[in-house]
Amino acid sequence: MFSASWVFGLWGDALREQLLNGFFEGAISFDKDTLYLRFTRFDGSRYTLEVKFIDGHMFILTSDRIFDQNDLRKGMAQFKEIENLQIVGIKNDPNDRWICMQLSNNNELWLKGFGKFGNVLLRNSISDETISLFRLSLKSDWEFKYPVLEAIQSSDSDVKKPNPDELSALHIKNWPLSIQELVQAELHFMRDFYFDRNKMQLIDGLEKKIKHYKKIIVESQRRLKDIETRRSNKELGDLILAHSHSLKPGLTKALVTDYFTDQRIWIKLNPDLSAADNAKKYYGKAKNEVIEVKKLLEQIEITQSNLKDLELQLAGACASTDFKSLKSYQKLAPPVSNQIQDTLPYRLVEFQGYQIWVGKNNKSNDQMLKLAQKNDMWLHAKDVAGSHVIIKKKGAIYPESVIQHAAQLAAKNSKAKTQSVVPVIAVLRKFVSKPKNAAPGEVSVQKEEIVDAFIA
């Protein structure tokens, strides 16, 4: 970037011409990456430098900004120790990346380039102590080893000409270069830098949003397929009523003839309910499924529309070549409404090809439990409140790495998330049941297998 020794050589010569025997008026900053240095020339005219840091790299610019009392109140004054002191010397090394302004009270203001470790430092030349820094994050600068100024033979630097490739990379065509031309080249570079950064941030945000919307669509379609392919709850209710005369109270399941397929099937029953009430329960599930299907279809339609808009924005953002064209793609598509988002009671996580569901709250934990299949893996942090976690079955066994990842999710989404090791229950869904009159999220586990989740 613009922290080469020849850049500091140009600035050293320019500052000697402009500021030698003038006065340091003061310094002010409005953020951690920009510092204004205000001077009064020997003839009484004002001169202001704007020192900017981009990814740690120092850029020295001239500035026409005029500061009023309101600016001085809003900003943070820097280097008060040298305010209104005369500049008695300005030195730089043609082979190094620094400029030293010597003040009349034996203090020195250093502009230090050094690549990504640029900074502005105030030093007492008598004690060799660093008095203050602008970029406080560079703590090592408190122990900065200052060059020996006496080794610099002349205050006038012999500016070394940069090689042609270096000039070309910075879009500089002519040499020698005036300070005005150097500042223009810096501003051109900064415009490109900020444009590229904004463009990449926008593209990254759009790509993440597109990925998220595609996941919503896939999961909604998967849920629709599950509802469409599994046995209809309405038909199960009809079969219970058709066999109600032979269903005795207290049964947990019944083997009945399926008139729709002419096969014998088992139907789960609530032993505390009559046949009619069991049928009513299945009819209620069927009604809820109709509502869920409607919401899922609405979600897919809205998400597909938003996805199309986002893909158009992404294509436009990728093709943008200036801020004006990029600005039109800054506004993202509106988010899916909360009502639609709540259709899925869980947050989907994919790990090593496995789908892992993480419950959103107590109510969604119960809904998620109903959606899970009997041989899915159920996990929950032991003896503390937290989210239910479900690993969807895939293959004959659950890999240990997948169980451990899901256990970590259960631990991190529980009241025990501050512990380094959290015991997590991990059993098949068929061993988990919802007791009668239980509070939302409360379950009964027939047997417990414990997995230790390690939270980094």
Helix percentage: 25-40%
* Alpha-carbon distance between the two ends: 38 Å
Give, in order, the helices and strands: HEEEEHEEEEEEHHHEEHHHEEHEEHEEEE
- What multimeric state do the chains show? single chain
Shape: elongated
Overall strand count = 20
Strand content: 25-35%
Structure characterization notes:
- By secondary structure, the protein is an alpha+beta fold.
- It has three domains: 5-160, Roll (ibrinogen binding protein from staphylococcus aureus fold); 193-327; 345-454, no CATH class.
- 36% of the residues lie in helices and 25% in strands.
- It contains ten helices and 20 strands.
- The strands form four sheets. Strands 1, 2, 3, 4, 5, 6, 7, 8, 9 and 10 form a ten-stranded antiparallel sheet that branches. Strands 13-14-16-15-17-20 form a six-stranded antiparallel sheet. Strands 11-12 form a two-stranded antiparallel ribbon.
- Strand 3 and strand 4 form a beta hairpin.
- Helix 4 (179-229) runs antiparallel to helix 6 and helix 5 (233-242) packs antiparallel against helix 6.
- The longest helix has 51 residues, at 179-229.
- The chain is elongated.
- Mean pLDDT is 88; it is low at 333-342.
Gist?
With 456 residues, the protein is an alpha+beta fold.
Strand and helix layout:
Layout: H1 5-19, E1 23-31, E2 34-40, E3 46-54, E4 57-63, H2 69-74, E5 76-78, E6 85-92, E7 98-103, E8 107-112, E9 119-124, E10 129-133, H3 164-169, H4 179-229, H5 233-242, E11 253-258, E12 263-268, H6 275-319, H7 323-327, H8 338-341, E13 346-351, E14 354-359, H9 362-371, E15 377-381, E16 389-391, H10 400-412, E17 421-428, E18 432-433, E19 444-445, E20 450-454
Antiparallel strand pairs: 1-2, 1-5, 1-6, 2-3, 3-4, 6-7, 7-8, 8-9, 9-10, 11-12, 13-14, 14-16, 15-16, 15-17, 17-20, 18-19
Helix pairs in contact: 4-6, 5-6
